[in-house]
Specification:
By secondary structure, the protein is an alpha+beta fold. It has 4 helices and 4 strands. It has one domain (2-90): Dimeric alpha+beta barrel (Alpha-Beta Plaits), CATH 3.30.70.1060.
Length: 99
């Protein structure tokens, strides 16, 4: 299984502090989706960057780029059009707890 990283680019600076109620609902669905992927074993790790630019990252496992792209595009934050997604292939070379 290949590893992929997708970046979730928020629509503006200080997004986490300035979300509208509608955006908060989408972000709640986004978080629930990440929790589901973690439970299913698709998600390796996820989280936001802090500060004025709140870019999210999600490291996932998928068999190929098409599957990884589909996972990214189905993320509620991206599917809603609020955030933009950027997908890149990657290799997790070192990870605590992984041989």
């Amino acid at each position: 299984m290949a590893e992929w990283i997708y970046f979730i680019h928020s629509p503006r600076e200080d997004f986490a502090a300035t979300m509208t109620d509608d955006e908060k609902h989408v972000w709640a669905a986004h978080f629930e989706n990440l929790q589901r992927m973690l439970a299913e074993g698709t998600l390796v790790m996820a989280g936001p960057t802090l500060g004025r630019i709140n870019t999210g990252i999600a490291v996932i496992e998928a068999p190929d780029e098409a599957a990884a792209r589909r996972i990214m595009e189905e993320d509620p934050a991206i599917a809603s059009g609020i955030a933009k997604g950027e997908l890149r292939g990657m290799r997790v070379s070192l990870l605590r707890g992984r041989e």
